[in-house]
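pasting input
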Amino acid sequence: MIDLKFDRVSKKYRIYQESGVEASPSKLQRVTRRLWGNGNDFWALRDVTFEVKRGEALGIIGQNGAGKSTILKLLYNITAPTKGRISINGRLAALIEVASGFHPDLTGRENVYLNGSLLGMKRREISKKLDSIVDFAGVSAFIDTPVKRYSSGMYLRLGFSIAAHLDPDILLLDEVLAVGDAEFQSKCIERIDQLRKAGTTIVFVSHNLGAVEGLCDRVFLLRKGEIFRSGLPRYVISEYEHMLTNMPASAPARLTGTVASPAAIISSVAFLNSNGRKTTMFATGDEARVEVEYIVRDSFEDAVIEVYFYSIFGNLHTHFSTDVDGSRVDLAPGRGIIEFLCPDLPFEAATFNVEASIRRRGSSFSEHLDHKHAACVNITRGKAVHGAFHTPHTWRMKSLERQESDDAAADAVVKQSD
Amino acid sequence: MRPLDSSAINHEVGRSGVRPISEILPPSFSGVNLLGHLSKLLQYRDLIWTLSVHRIKVRYKQSVLGIFWAILQPISMMLIFTFIFSLIAKMPSEGAPYAIFAYTALLPWNYFSSGVSNATTSLVSHAQFVTKVYFPREILPITYIIAALFDFGVASTLLAGLMIYYHVPLTINALYAIPIILVLTCFALAMSFFLSATQVRFRDIGVAVPLLLQVWLFATPVIYPLSAVPARWQPLYLLNPMVGIIESFRQGILRGAAPETRYLALSAAISVILLVASYLYFKLVEATMADFV
């Protein structure tokens, strides 16, 4: 049984540039251009054909602008294709956060009815699920309070919880795990699992390669609006990683201090697991090695090498520096490798953009000699993290009642067992 | 560790036997899908109901006078018009007291004008819905028309009061109000579909509509009787569907007579044709609305 079918689907967007290449056109020209529809065409999807079988979980990966969200928008009927035909067999729903549609003056309960029916639920169905929706969001005590008095977290959780209570035949997922705290996220993952086990067909669009590999049976790699690769998650994901790692290192716009002819350059950055194999897939608690290979023209004293971990939204998560660690690094002329070893990766399951830079000690962050986007590193669920991070640790039990024999009541040391 | 079992979703993952099959195609203007559109709309009747109730609730929430605002608007217009056109300008009102003469027309006019002006901006003001969730988008303008119809009902109670006060007898012909309001609703929907869909691309509409409605008020026999319009202009004048609607409403309620059939029939014909055309236009624009809104 085929649940979803794209038949030579193309989607064109028209971009109206306010200030074009040519000298700013007159108002009249702009108006006529709009009326006649002369803008720059951008093909978000070109001739895309695929099928998704019933019960299959399809992952779609690719860089921003590759057409991932366009596929979801077309499936969800938010917008129509320019060419081609899409067939959908079954009730389709998207697991999206709908809190932006809340009316601040209405109570939580009223908003659940409003947004539930927006998502296509019947009033009777909402009444039946109301308690569960409210419980899931953890806002039971405030259900008759106007949502304008909610915290932003409560707001988002309630919005998401409504969508999580849909029972679709086909489920669309779009970066769902970016909502709420770890506790709420794990509930969402549980819900997705539940639907998956019940045979729901799933289309999952994400930058979180670990999550895609964990959930999906098949993965598409989109590139410039076309399906570039399709196949088993492991192969397609590693192909994508390869593509990302071999991208010509482009200095992001915010890094302006790069010197034209640097005394030192980073020639490559590699990620290795405990077996010494190159990869960008890790789990929380894994050993990870980052090898930063550099080329130095003349001997370069007192260098600082740094590795940055950014969230996919661009926030700096943490950074490691040879400067902070206190060690002095002198680089001899020629090629060399400096290795960053992390025996126990502390990160929660997520995707990180890792960057590496080289600079002189005492210079500011922006004055580095070279800077490279190293890779998109995916951390999957390894050692349990219910919160932001994991750290190596032990547990120790102490008895407060020291009576007869000290030796019998000796402190019991319990090792962490994951 | 599964920390939150107590609050996991417990209801069954429902596997209803019927799986709807749908096809999404590039937008095209055709009447073939009219029935399909309507049956889809019917599936979303719960949303129409919830959103309409929501509109009414939100409008009067945190306001002291609440529902009385629905009466206050036509009544203040009535008082102003009575003052200007009756006391100062001595406008003819075909023998009826000017206040009730104006109010019987202001009531349906206000329904039309407030419904259409709110519905026009409905898509743009709900951009967060339109770009995130699928539902038949015509529901947004429809619910504003329903909310305006509700206000019309509330404001009608004052008409009843005025009729008692001025000793205007209620006859069986007042029942004509029902088909007249139906025609008016069709026409209001036709205008709303066209204007709201166009406003998504051209925000000028949002600014133009209040002006349009102002001019339109004077092109409709609200403050003056139809008989005041020179006979040679009447054929052209009657092409405005609001003329037949307002005149028939006044005829049925105020004069207790059956409305002139050809006036009402003309308005009904124009309204229905426009409704079908503007609905199909709306569905054509709807397909890619989210790209522009």
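fyi Chain A has a mean pLDDT of 80.
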